[in-house]
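I hope you will forgive my troubling you with a question about protein structure. I should value your view on which stretches of the chain appear to form regular backbone elements. Here, with my thanks, is the record as I have it:
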Amino acid sequence: MNLVDIHAHLDHTKFSKDLDKVIERARKSGLKTIITSGVNSTTNRIILKIQEKYPDIVKISFGIYPLDALAKELEIGEASGFARQDENRNNERGRELDGFVRDIEQFDLDSELKFIQNNKDKCIAIGECGLDYNWTQEEKIKQEQKKIFQKIINLAIKLNKPLIVHSRKAEIDALDMLEKSNYKKVVLHCFSGRTSLIKKGVDLGYYFSIPPIITRLQHFQLLATIVPLSQLLTETDAPYLSPVQGERNTPANVKVTIKEIAKIKNLPEKKVAEAIWQNYKKLFEK
């Protein structure tokens, strides 16, 4: 089977000691492509080096995470403190989807957009990017996030690159902006919106990427039920969203997601894997 992980964070410190082994396990599991995504200026440059080291399997997506883009406005120390408090939640979905466990970074947005444009031939997509209302409901911050996201949407359209979109607790606004842009090369990464929003994304022609935590979270099982196979992709968000609580997630776990989707769709795993591979090629390689 040809497997693809359209969203991982191979630059994460949890891979710093054994990335060679992680990549080798991915190859043996059938992974043909891993898209590792940046979130800010520093990580966008690190992933370039990772791609250079593993050119046969790693592709990159330059990202501007909404919180990093507003680091100054959010105050770095305070936002990081929220993250550590959030780790202590008892609710599993809160821990897995809302936990933000790294420091956000200040950088100049326009300079980073220029960097992405100058290096457009080295990336396969733009993201992750989008909106995140989890940490603050302040209207001013929401509006600033929208302005930034619109700039990124405009750049993706200009470069004709797919967008990998993060929309935590901001699904309505994210879909509204994407719909108004009339851009169709969109992946809704780890989408947590309600059923009506999932159906809206399907109707708009967007793709949905499903992580291995589908085995533990009913929401992603529902998403896999609603979304046609022709609009599904696989991701890991590694090292996050593991199929086993407390374990580091890795790209090799894509096969876990394939197995679960096959069970939900009542289809052979090979057929599901091939359909998702073709979805990937249609979106990212044309």
The radius of gyration is 17 Å. Residues 76-101 have pLDDT under 50 and may be disordered.
